[in-house]
Known about the structure:
Belongs to the TCP-1 chaperonin family. This protein is of the alpha/beta class.
Amino acid sequence: xxxxxxxxxxxxxxxxxxxxxxxxxxxxxxxxxxxxxxxxxxxxxxxxxxxxxxxxxxxxxxxxxxxxxxxxxxxxxxxxxxxxxxxxxxxxxxxxxxxxxxxxxxxxxxxxxxxxxxxxxxxxxxxxxxxxxxxxxxxxxxxxxxxxxxxxxxxxxxxxxxxxxxxxxxxxxxxxxxxxxxxxxxxxxxxxxxxxxxxxxxxxxxxxxxxxxxxxxxxxxxxxxxxxxxxxxxxxxxxxxxxxxxxxxxxxxxxxxxxxxxxxxxxxxxxxxxxxxxxxxxxxxxxxxxxxxxxxxxxxxxxxxxxxxxxxxxxxxxxxxxxxxxxxxxxxxxxxxxxxxxxxxxxxxxxxxxxxxxxxxxxxxxxxxxxxxxxxxxxxxxxxxxxxxxxxxxxxxxxxxxxxxxxxxxxxxxxxxxxxxxxxxxxxxxxxxxxxxxxxxxxxxxxxxxxxxxxxxxxxxxxxxxxxxxxxxxxxxxxxxxxxxxxxxxxxxxxxxxxxxxxxxxxxxxxxxxxxxxx
Length: 519
């Protein structure tokens, strides 16, 4: 008899065929089920405890999946779906993960019925095309103006923890931040919108600062703590005695020589302050060190200076004030400097917090987020991140759709009617895709305390009669109605991204029929 040929190492584990498929599908469904109950305004929270005892309580899908210690490679693909969704549009991570898990579950049923994986994948891609057409058919007419953007932002934050500040107030702050930094082509650089958090006050103290907020104290205690109508210099050079590029030793043989050397260094440090003062500089932001003697001379000149600021903050200072980042103070000119309405240092909760407020057309803004506890601040920050993402997406694309599951109901209806035009076994995959999409409104109903079957029947009936139907939650009341009437809307980009990323992940996993893992 012929001896077996071993290609893999003895410690290698190999799973193939149906076993590999079941393992991957089970892992994907487990990830989806982990975040399913967080979906919607009535979604539940998860408590995540790390190995060191740190606790995170949140219902943000992206945060949950990031904090979970997931090792299965197929499950990691769904985590990547959520990360991609978060990076692209800032929201819809839970929807994408739940949809991907449902697509895998429905596909497993087809595979068990001897439908080939290739037919399922092709059918899913055909269904995706129909689903995207359905999203286009649900677009709300009209300009996406400030009022519409506030509605989008508020919808994204509904059900998330924001302390004692109303979501409507917070949504208005978020929209003002986006509109402040947007350019004439309706493009927004998210780096121009900073979020700075600080505990010690109620969430109602959260505010929009047209400029930069950072936690830093002046380089010298004798410097002014507030400067109005400030002329600003942003420096990327060390403010101290210049040193040579090569090591040099000097031999000093007398006290007079030592005094002369020290006097020369002192004169150079004093000249730094004099140069900046002569240029009319009131405030200095330096990304490198400012030596104590130079800081003292700057204080004597009435200049407020900050040392070792972060590179990201230096960029923000320059963007907010119009200053150039300088590598030297030699030949400094007025055109190199920026202006600020005010720069001040305040004491908040025992810490020095500095505020640079630019002009009304400042291209950098900061959302100064307050909260009574770390948990409140963290949850508010996560809610703001989601709101920023959807607001930017809606503003740049100029397209919004009804929320509350209305789009998913429309997609499922479109897929079931369109499946008749699909030939072969791919039609079964299109219908399975429709069943998977139904999981979104069904989950919203479950989390709202409704019977999911009855709710789905009512949603389909209302959609057939009126064209739009969603599960609208307003405080203690839950109703199946037109979400547009209650100002519940989402950016179309969020829906498209969730559909595309979930389909891509599901089809990639379904194509795997062999798992080879080194031990």
